[in-house]
Amino acid sequence: MSRPPSRAGHAGAGGSRPAPGAGRPAPRDGGQRARALEILLAVEGGRFASELLAPGDGRFVRELVLGVLRRTLTLDSVIGSFGARERRDLDPDVRGALRLGLYQVLFMDGVPPHAAVSESVATLPARSRGYANAVLRAVLRESHKVPEGEDRGGASPTKRLHRPGRAVIFFSRAVFPDPTRDRTGWLAAVHSHPRLLVERWVARLGEDAAVARMEAGNQPAPLVLRPRHGRITAAELVDLLALQRIAADVLPRPDSPGADAVLVRAGQDDVFACSAFRDGLFVAQDLSQMDAAEILEPRAGEVVWDLCAAPGGKASQLAERLGGEGGGRVVATDSSEERLLRLQQTVARLRLGNVECAVHDALSGAPPPGRPPHGFDAVLVDAPCSNTAVLARRPEARWRLRPDTFTELAALQRRLLGAARAHLRPGGRLVYSVCSFEPEEGEAHGLRPTRSPFVWTEGA
Predict the structure, then answer these.
(1) CA 449 to CA 443: how far, in whole Å?
(2) Which pTM value belongs to this model?
(3) Which positions ≥6 away from 449 have C-beta within 8 Å?
């Protein structure tokens, strides 16, 4: 259900790892920061990190990319205080290298600070290294880090950065707004979320709950696997992964008997390079994404339409459930040909023969390919959304929000719902899902809530 705010049918997270960079060998240590910078620059150009990170990008690269994206505003606040140039005046590669180096210094305790600086600066052309080196070394000189238990307080909140459970970093100069004058700006900078989102959440939830939500959005997202239904159980998948030296645990799902998931332990970066993945025995998929397909409850012999289907996590889940005795099929469409290719790769890897994939714009007015004369028995509308409920997994989405994002997305979602209803048979079922906390994108559409806070339904 995690979707970028884009045109109808543009898919989101889930399914197999994306094709770009697939099979890329893990870079040598000296090249990992360069690889991270390459991805960060592509994200700044509009791509999503989840579409760019490949199985060969190990733990260090992933931590650099996702960590910098989560902590961008905090990093920029520090860079702005120690640098002589405005952030917007910096070349993108210089800005990216500064963020990379500073993230390692502030947030990666196992990286020697001077190595973090020198190796990050080395990713730049020679003509750009002087400025980046000067800024990062100034931060090293004028900051110090102490374990959280040794914090005695006393420093101005403009000069301290608290990493809960880990450490406190003190700066010699003010790097954050004064909370007595600009509380929202201070919260935004310290917790690295855009001001407009901080304002919305504080107004609706109160500051403590808003801070808890922001802190959750800055944590690494867990890696959850959905075992291939009909071929392997969660317990069997855990045992198989253990044979391949990948540590994982069964993740019980009380609301979905017989559909337990698998939680991969932190640091198991080679899970997508193992034979269990190649053999189509699992799909990476969040629990909330699994809920949407299960709530739709596909039944034997039905024809189901997933109209924003790429990269294929939920479409394949529906097909697996329909593939038993009595059959049934899934019509999986998406308006993006590139993303549809990922869906087709997922379907092929899972060896599913009951999925019809097609490029189709749900808002075009044309009937989708494979539509039964009476209409579809069930339709899944996994709509493009703001991603505010999955910022840990799609950290860059927060920086793409604008004041009119939520109203624009709500209008798009209403159009998609209308298109879905037009091709639903009388008495059929419709499930709508998004990965958003924002009321405009959820309850405002007037559908029935379900057991999941991100899924709504209508029909029989």
Answers:
(1) 8
(2) 0.89
(3) 443, 456
Nearest in space to 163 (alpha carbons), one of 209, 107, 111, 207: 107
**Which CATH fold topology does 1-20+288-460 show?**
Rossmann fold (3.40.50)
Question: Of residues 87 and 272, which shows the higher confidence score?
Answer: 272
Residues 6+ apart with CB under 8 A from 130: none
Alpha-carbon span 46 to 456, nearest angstrom: 30
Lowest mean pLDDT among 61-65, 339-343, 446-450: 339-343
Q: Looking at the structure, give the CATH architecture of the domain made up of residues 222-285.
A: 2-Layer Sandwich (3.30)
Give Cβ neighbours of residue 347 (< 8 Å, ≥ 6 apart): 312, 315, 316, 319, 332, 355, 357
Confidence tier at 269 by pLDDT (50, 70, 90)? low
Write down the residue that tokens 């590139």 correspond to: 338
Classify strands 160-163 and 167-171 as parallel, antiparallel or unpaired: antiparallel
pLDDT of residue 232: 96
CA-to-CA dists, residue 246 to 10, 69, 262, angstroms = 32, 27, 12
126-156 per-position pLDDT tens digit: 999 999 999 999 999 999 999 989 988 878 9
Backbone angles phi, psi at 28, to 5 degrees: -65, 165
**What mean pLDDT, rounded, does the chain reach?**
90
Most confident of 28-42, 74-88, 317-331, 431-445: 431-445
Report the pLDDT value the prediction gives residue 24, as an integer from 0 to 100: 38
Q: Could you state, in order of their start, the residue ranges of all structural domains in the chain?
A: 1-20+288-460, 222-285
* DSSP one-letter code for 284: E
For tokens 């997933």, name the residue.
306
Instruction: Let me know: does 11 contact 44? Beta carbons within 8 Å.
Output: no
Q: Is the peptide bond before 311 cis (omega within 30 degrees of 0)?
A: yes
Counting beta carbons within 10 angstroms of the beta carbon of residue 207, is it exposed (0 to 12), middle (13 to 18) or buried (19 or more)?
A: middle
Give Cα 308 distance to the centre of its chain.
17
Question: Is the dihedral angle over the CA atoms 371, 372, 373, 375 positive or is it negative?
Answer: negative
Please provide the DSSP assignment of 78-129 as one string. HHHHH-SS-GGGS-HHHHHHHHHHHHHHHH-TTS-HHHHHHHHHTTS-HHHH
